Amino acid sequence: MQYVRMAAIFLVLFAAVAFADYSQEWQVQQNFYDYGILYFDYNHDGSAELTKMWGNTVTAYDGSSNYSVLWYLEQTDYDELCIWDIYDDLIEGQEIALFFADNVVDETSTRFFAFEVLGDTPVWSSNLFDGYYSYISVKDIDADGAKEIVFGLNIYNADDEDYTSHFYVLNGQTGALEYTSPEFAGYMRGPFLNDMDDDGVIEILLNIYNNTDQTSELIVYSDDSQGVIQTEDFLPRDITLHSNFPNPFNPGTTIPITLQLRAEVRIAVYDILGREITVLMDGTLGAGTHQFYWNGRNDAGIPLASGAYFYEVKINGQHLLRKAMVLLK
Q1: pLDDT tens string 213-264
Q2: For 297-314, what is the mean pLDDT?
Q3: Quick one: pLDDT at residue 9?
């Protein structure tokens, strides 16, 4: 009887899936570069408004009111205007809509604007930055009750046909610039924000792609004591951490490091959750190139599963650099 009942349920589900059908409700023509999204419920009526972005204008249409114009914004000095996110400013108690405006025709530049939802005057506007956005994340990364806006910008260099990039941190309440990263040689995807290792600190994850030498790095920054402490630029210039080889690897990989000066060095391997797997080196190294082999096992000698891992190098107890590697079985 149980099998009969399960078979009947399966047939009902199969019929529901097999014979589902959809019909088009309506269609309108739009400009070639025009596009509509359904992310935001501006008037809190329980349904997302149709938001259309075309060139330097953003228009929101109220579907519950015969698609009348609910909100219209234009930035005449820019080639492109886009709405990215809506967030609550817990300090001022405002609901903020974050926009960015770009110039892409004669120059490449980006500026951010914050409006109260359905307002027509910016609460603040940022500086004008060189480059075109890669990604934008909004989160309270320093636990002060106000959101930060973390964004990346890419600049194309026509001479060498490659990119340079930066990420920046803005105060979400005022638009003030709080941090500028060092320049990266390559194209950025990110920054992406989350607490990767469950330590209560928001990490900033970047992917950097260098077209010149066809290399890529995953770099993780963190905010410590309300100051952004990054994992690469604070390294002394006379220390080089090379990429592991091979990568991906199975069963093992080699991690080279070059020192111009004698230093205290600790090299450890971590999983994607930030848990320490094993320590490859913890002591003093002289000047020169040193290589460390990891066999894909933990300290107990147990082989680990396929996936992404990090190797972290700490120099003289303070300078830190992490790189990603992939164990592929």
Answers
A1: 788 888 888 865 433 444 444 344 457 778 899 989 999 999 998 887 788 8
A2: 90
A3: 55
103 sits in which H/E element:
strand 94-103
Q: How far apart are CA 282 and CA 187, in angstroms?
A: 34
Q: How far apart (Å, rounded) are the C-alpha atoms in residues 235 and 307? A: 27
* Residue 322, amino acid: R
With beta carbons less than 8 A apart as the criterion, state whether 179 and 168 touch.
Answer: yes
pTM across the whole model = 0.63
The helix (run of H) or strand (run of E) holding residue 14 is helix 2-18
Q: Which residue has 């040193």 as its token pair? A: 290
For residue 260, report the phi and psi dihedrals to the nearest 5 degrees.
Answer: -90, -20
Count of helices and strands (H, E) across the chain: 1, 25
- At residue 74, what is the residue type? E
Gap between the Cα atoms of 255 and 131, Å rounded:
34
Beta carbons within 8 Å of 218's beta carbon, 6+ residues apart: 205, 206, 207, 208, 323, 324
pLDDT at 238: 57
Peptide bond connecting 303 to the previous residue in cis, omega within 30 degrees of 0? no
Hey, what are 90's tokens?
Answer: 């817990």
Q: Which residues pair with 133 in a beta bridge?
A: 153
pLDDT in tens, 143-193: 777 889 999 999 998 887 889 999 999 999 899 998 898 899 999 999 999
CB atoms within 10 A of CB 283: 7
C-alpha span between 136 and 243 (Å, rounded) = 28
Q: Do 98 and 81 meet the contact criterion of CB atoms below 8 Å apart?
A: no
Element (H, E) at 7: helix 2-18
Which pair of structure tokens corresponds to residue 136? Answer: 């934008």
Backbone angles phi, psi at 10, to 5 degrees: -60, -40
